[in-house]
Amino acid sequence: MEKIIVLGIGNQLMMDDGIGIYLVNELGKHPSAPNIFYLVGESDIDYCLELIDGATFIMIVDAVLSGKEPGELSVFSLEELHESQPLHISPHNLHLFQELYQQKETIAGYLIGIEPFELRFHIGLSDELIAKWDVVLKDVQRTIDELLAKRMIERLEK
Q1: Residues near 144 by Cβ (< 8 Å), separated by ≥ 6?
Q2: CA-CA distance, 45 to 55, in Å (whole number)?
Q3: In 3D, which of 98, 95, 94, 97 has the Cα closest to residue 110?
Q4: Measured between alpha carbons, how far is 6 from 157 in angstroms, rounded to an integer?
Q5: At a CB cut-off of 8 Å and minimum separation 6, what does 151 contact?
């Protein structure tokens, strides 16, 4: 059975940069298939690399600067991220995303980015993202479900 990881990364000390952590913590409270693991890596990228060891499919949830409205989602294929995007959209990307790119033959996946409102030293999300919490949570869950369905179809076609 395929090992699937939903990994929340970010820094809870930098306001909206912690959105990936908060979302994955909440999503992990709900029942899921036994091969899906909701894990928090925070901003310790070496720890994140340990967490994803043995995974074949990963979805990273993180704050991403993409120019959208706060709380809006962007989805990037990890394989295509290096080819189509300069890797300055997430402060956690360099080491983690480069490592995942090197393993693109064995690990497929996506970056699910949430547009932050404010990034500064302060614990907790901005009022803007707190007000949109339920919508963002639903959007992320729906996106995860869609990406899992797409993955299942791709694996059946092979």
Answers
A1: 6, 27, 59, 112
A2: 16
A3: 97
A4: 23
A5: 4, 57, 108
What digits encode the pLDDT tens for the residues 36-95? 999 998 877 777 778 788 899 999 999 999 899 999 999 999 877 765 454 455 554 556
Tell me the pTM: 0.89
**Is the pLDDT higher at 144 or at 107?**
144
Sign of torsion over alpha carbons 28, 111, 113, 72: negative
